[in-house]
């Protein structure tokens, strides 16, 4: 197992992590921006007004993209297990 294989696995791990967290983070960003814009327009400064819609939107994003996330993780794990013999030199 050489350093290029370790770096390749690390880069693939970072890419899959970014792909998996993107739907949740982008949803939270968009909903947070929309709620902040609404709060600044109406001058309502309520803490729960920013938290509850964001929590609901993130829950919906997880519900919608959860199956895709699990299938991506399963395929990544299968790929890593398939690479074990090559990494061990066999």
Q: Can you offer a commentary on this structure?
A:
The protein has 90 residues and is an all-alpha fold. It has one domain (3-87). Helix content is 90%, strand content 0%. The chain is built from two helices and no strands. This is Flagellar biosynthetic protein FliQ. Pfam families: Bac_export_3. The chain crosses the membrane at residues 14-39, 51-70.
| Strand coverage percent | under 5%
Q: How much helix, percentage-wise, in residues?
A: over 70%
Question: Would you count the extended β strands for me?
Answer: 0
What would the principal axes of the Cα set say about the shape? elongated
Please give the alpha-carbon distance between the first and last residues.
11 Å
Order of helices and strands: HH
| Cα Rg | 20 Å
Largest sheet: none
Q: Average pLDDT, to the nearest integer?
A: 92
Secondary-structure class: mainly alpha
What's the tally of helices? 2
Tell me the count of domains. Answer: 1
Low-confidence stretches: none
